[in-house]
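Protocol step 4 of 5: obtain the predicted structure for the target chain.
Materials: sequence only (see below). No template structures provided, no constraints applied. The aim of this step is simply to have a reference model before the mutagenesis design in step 5. Sequence pasted as it appears in the construct record:
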Amino acid sequence: MIYCGGCMLAVQEQLDDVAAGVREALPGVPFLGVFTFGEQGVVLDGRNRHGNLMISAIVFGA
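Step 4 output (C-alpha cells):
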C-alpha cells in the first residue's frame, strides 16, 4: 500500500482504522504500507502528473 504522507499526518491518530479497513477489504492477505510525499504518475493523456492525498495498491494473485 502506498499512502500519501500528508494524508497520513492528517489521520495519524486513526492509522489503526486505516489498516483495519485494508484488512477488511483484503481478508487474510499480508500487506506492507509506506507513506510517501509527492506522488507522481502517468495519466491517460500520457503526461506525468502530481497527485495528492492518494492511496494505491498493487495486488498479486495466484
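Step 4 remarks: DSSP finds two helices and five strands in the chain. Residues 2-56 form one domain.
Proceed to step 5.
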